Amino acid sequence: MSETRLRFPPSPTGYLHIGGARTALYNWLYAKKTGGKLILRIEDTDVERSTSDSIEGILEGLTWLGIDWDEGPYFQSEFSEDHERAAAELIAKDRAYKCYCTKEDLEARREAALAAKGSLAYDGTCRRLSKAEIAEKEAASTPYIIRFKVPERQGILSYDDKVLGKIDCNYTEIDDFVIVRSNGKPLYLLCNVVDDIRDRITHVIRGQDHMTNTIRQVLLYEALEAPLPVFAHIPLTMDTKRAKISKRSHGEIVAVQFYKEHGFLPWAFNNYLVLLGWSPGDDQEIFSREELIERFSLERINKSHSIFNYRKNDPKFFTDPKAISINEHYLRSMDIEELGEYVREELKKEGLWKEDYAAEEKEWFLSTLDLIRSRFHTLKDFAQTGRAYFAEDYTICDKARKKNLAKYPELQQWLPELAERYAALEPFTLEETERVAREMAAELEIKPGIIINGMRTVLTGQLAGPSMFDIVMAIGRDRVVQRLRNAVNLFD
Ligand code: GLU
Questions:
Q1: 206 lines ligand 1 (CB under 6 A)
Q2: Is any atom of ligand 1 closer than 6 Å to the C-beta of 210?
Q3: How far is CA 35 from the centre of its chain?
């Protein structure tokens, strides 16, 4: 088999959203799986709606996800000569014709058809013009558009879809569609096919919303005498109420950028995306890059719509819980050195990164991450919930302050006292620090929990977290002593 060539051709009219990213991922996976190429083509022929910000956003989103391409980015607007040449070729072959009907003509016919409950399809007026009539229109420089001449065939037009099987359409349902506007600019339907032919695309994997285009494009391939690519139409992503997800109705949450900004790991997000519309056939949900490339197949793409399970009013989940749980899985189990790279960037953004963490304190840095990650959801947590490990300006959560400090005002004396015992303790080990804290609780005839929870609140600002004496070790003697001495400032 010759090389597979796939493409991702976004229109740069907005941000890279979940649906687009998933399409890109499927194309990328299939290219990788088959040892083929992925071509990135920016379909910027809609000049009014295309923006450079959008192009930048799309490239940034793909780069963040690690979806790399082998060719491009090509810009569709740079190939207008090819598109115009194809339109001329179709006219020359009598597979397209100039249509001189004015907007007013078309509107009037449409209204009449509506009133008579007849077909709204183009009625073929200009298709039937005689040579003399055409010559007359041309002589008068009558403005025109170009329409494709749908063959007058009986029966069914079909193509095979890798996901949906055989797709049929009755010829009578396809009217002579427009391929060139009155300003001479070829339309997307044609440009897209001309570019795919030129780029020798073998597989077109795209959303089911393009299926009405595909049937027309099949006719264009035939007329341009080019082989049909393999088509695979992937299900649309809906919200829980079965409405198509969009920025207008769902906000930033459907943009890839949102996940980048909210501390998701790129591979974890790909892993989430792939499951929105594809399943491996068993219950495996976590896939390494290599595993996914191996297991991905067009045949196992779902036929029915996928659900972006985001419940707007559920404060527990700021996005689809599945995306969060997959992210947690990676965050909590991935190679610690690799996680270290991500956390470094996160801490840098927050001004919490110290070069020591990369040099002599590297071991401390990585073991601290390993200690605290088990309850974290995203990279953001390292600088937020985990701020006390990297900085002194962490906040004490209200709940913890009320529950663990305000209820026991004596901690104002007990914690500084513990600080002094820790200052003098030799060796300052996990076992010894625990022994000293428990011993003090016994002397005071209080539950050790009172001291331990007070320590946790003062040392980390949090209500819950890793085992207390692991925390003491991670924060280190100097900072522990200083924070416990200053505990008095935390009482009103
Ligand atoms: N520019 C089209 C879009 O963004 C591409 C469709 C296709 O994959 O052919 O929807």
A1: yes
A2: yes
A3: 24
